[in-house]
Amino acid sequence: MTNPTVDSKTTGERLLSLDFFRGFTMFLLIAEFTHIFSYLTDPSLEGTIVHFIGTQFHHHPWNGLRPWDLVQPFFMFIVGVAIPLSVANRTKRGDSHSQILRHVIKRALLLLLFGWALYCIGPGKIVFRFQNVLAQLSVTYLIAFLVMNKSVKFQLIFSFALLAFTELIYRGFPVEGFNQPFVPDHNFGTWFDMLYGGEDIHGHWVSFNAIPTTAHTIWGVLAGKLLMSDRTAKQKLKILVIAGVIGLVVGYGLNPITPIIKRICTSSFVIASGGWTLLALAFSYWIVDMKKHTKIAMFFAIVGMNPLFIYLFAHVGGADFIEQIIHPFIKVIFGWTGEVSLNIISGMLGLFLLWYICYWMYKKKIFIKI
Q1: Measuring CA to CA, which residue among 262, 349, 361 is closest to residue 307?
Q2: Are 275 and 248 contacting, i.e. CB atoms less than 8 angstroms apart?
Q3: Who contacts 27 (Cβ-Cβ below 8 Å, separation ≥6)?
Q4: What is the DSSP letter of 50?
Q5: Number of domain units in the chain
Q6: Three-state DSSP state, 63
Q7: What is the distance between the alpha carbons of residues 249 and 175, in angstroms, rounded to a whole number?
Q8: Backbone region of residue 265 per phi and psi (left: phi > 0; alpha: psi in -120 to 50; beta: other values)
Q9: 3-state helix, strand, coil in the chain (%, to 5)
Q10: pLDDT at 308
Q11: Where are the alpha helices (DSSP H) in 60-132?
Q12: Which of 221, 213, 250 is nearest to 139 (CA)?
């Protein structure tokens, strides 16, 4: 993960909007491990506003876009934003380009290792799967770093070339049975996973997603450079908003031609989600760095200061362990509310305790990074 406490080149102050954006995204990610989103979609709640809200925190089954589909693009984009800021800080400390490159390669390999290892925990054996956010991020992070010193024009062309390549290989793949580009399990992405032995996890996810979603991290790098520039805050905000709106118009406009599908990261999905991501950064920059609403920013930023630790802790059973401890006590106090309400309350308290772990680490100045 990139350095969570980065400085703005132009103001000398910490770019709290990035901490806030990262922390909010991580808060949603760890909330998933408390099962609270599953509790909100309990069949007994079907037809209620609670159930509808809960469905928005589950991935769209195929062609479409829900808010939960934006979490991974957010995360990959945020890492991109932080790359030029972190490189600037390391350069200021005297690190050479070769030292920074070695650090980037080491970090990419560790991300790949962590992402791969998470899939080996459940089955208790070595399996080759690279569909999760950490494994995919190892690819997008390294590629984005390698092109970050190129011109803006080059980086934009390169990012869209990755999308064009993805589009062509999906549409033109000649192997029978896998030449239906937008049909679950009958496309190039599934064939590629079968080729190297990586099985589908549940829901038609594919490892090849790392290639088109590299665009998100590259666009994040460009956004980070924009925030470091000498432009005024209003100019920066305007550029982010305009770019975001263009992304939405183009992405959704492509949907009749290339369906918006998160699970195989089609070009229309990458562009549309990229638009939402740029607008989310614009909102964060406006509300935090321009309007100075720092209290709510710090609530989420605390989570984003130990992103790798809290993600891995929640993922490998930390969230379940916390819930096992607190559930009996919650049952005694709130058992009268019914099983569904009891589960929701338990999940919310578990989420708060995960946040409190981050808060405790923040107060003790414990920051785990790679």
Answers
A1: 361
A2: yes
A3: 300, 303, 351, 355
A4: H
A5: 1
A6: strand
A7: 33
A8: left
A9: 70, 0, 30
A10: 87
A11: 71-92, 97-121
A12: 213
- Alpha-carbon distance 122 to 120, whole Å? 6
Q: Residues 87-141: pLDDT tens digits?
A: 999 999 999 999 999 999 999 999 988 888 776 665 555 666 778 888 899 999 9
Report yes or no on 87 lying in a domain: yes
Measuring CA to CA, which residue among 4, 1, 10, 84 is closest to residue 289?
Answer: 10
Q: Considering the entire predicted model, what is its pTM? A: 0.90
Task: Find out whether 104 and 140 touch, Cβ atoms under 8 Å.
Answer: no
Distance of alpha carbon 251 from alpha carbon 253, whole angstroms:
5
The pair of structure tokens assigned to 68 is 């939960």
Residue 125 lies in a domain: yes
Whether 10 is covered by a domain: the verdict is no
14: β partners: 7
Answer whether 35's CB lies under 8 Å from 354's CB: no
What tokens were used for 160? 């869209």
Domain that holds residue 244: 16-363
Alpha helices in 206-318 (DSSP H): 214-228, 233-254, 267-284, 294-304, 307-313
Cβ–Cβ under 8 Å, residues 189 and 209: yes
Residue 1 lies in a domain: no
